[in-house]
Amino acid sequence: KAGVTQTPRYLIKTRGQQVTLSCSPISGHRSVSWYQQTPGQGLQFLFEYFSETQRNKGNFPGRFSGRQFSNSRSEMNVSTLELGDSALYLCASSPGRAADTQYFGPGTRLTVL
Amino acid sequence: QKEVEQNSGPLSVPEGAIASLNCTYSDRGSQSFFWYRQYSGKSPELIMFIYSNGDKEDGRFTAQLNKASQYVSLLIRDSQPSDSATYLCAGGTYNNNDMRFGAGTRLTVKP
User: Which of B25, B22, B45, B26 is nearest to B107 (CA)?
Assistant: First the structure.
């Protein structure tokens, strides 16, 4: 089976812009979770989607949003970018529940200038 | 209080030694536990998962779970320089449908 894929792999934006990141889960996996990873904060949970519904949300401002499509592919959007949004954004898929084994994609490295 | 806690390290062991990584969790509702390895600049990759009390072995890796003490550990036998990475502990809670990660322990295996 192909693994989790994320696009783009690298992104450079300027403050105030918005960005959309994409994640395709492992075939058959219906749960997609998004994380932000920074050196100081570690892995921070953003949100989890299952069957096009957000089931869980972390403690991030409303500038961070996401969605899931009927084929389980997911996107996350960050509006009005801030310097502090520079991070590695990871998505992970699991068969059905976020508490089950999660498999990570390669991540999208976002740099905000 | 962090829900999953790990010693950030760095932990340094000589090649061939046993590396012992530890993790504690605060949510007694956690039912699934995972160890991920993350090389610098890469994404986490799953090493092992454990659901039941006791030990689970896979090659050079042994995961140990003690739910009464809310403690999870990972032993790496015959450590190799290629094991040098950050190891993330995670606990999953089905009731809350979430997974919580520790901050990770950086391991260095010296040749």
Answer: B22
Question: What are the structure tokens assigned to A94, written together?
Answer: 């699991």
- For the cut 90, the answer to whether the pLDDT of residue A68 exceeds it is yes
A106 or B9: which leads in pLDDT? A106
Per-chain mean pLDDT for chain B: 93
Residue B99 touches partner A, C-beta closer than 8 Å: yes
Match 């996107």 to its residue by tokens: A75
- State the sign of the Cα–Cα–Cα–Cα dihedral A62, A67, A73, A78: negative
Strand partners, A104: A92
Task: Give backbone dihedrals phi and psi of B38, rounded to 5 degrees, phi first.
Answer: -135, 115
List residues in chain A touching B: CB distance below 8 A: 33, 35, 42-43, 45, 48, 55-56, 88, 90, 97-107
For residue A76 the two structure tokens come to: 């996350």
Give mean pLDDT, residues A101-113. Answer: 97
Find the residue in B nearest to A48 (Cα).
Answer: B98
Instruction: Return mean pLDDT, chain A.
Output: 95
Residue A56 Cα, gap to closest chain B Cα (Å): 7
Q: Which of A86, A80, A89 is nearest to A108 (CA)?
A: A89
For B43, which of A99, A101, A107 is closest by C-beta distance? A107
Condensed to tens digits (0 to 9), the pLDDT of residues B56-89 reads: 999 999 999 999 999 999 999 999 999 999 999 9
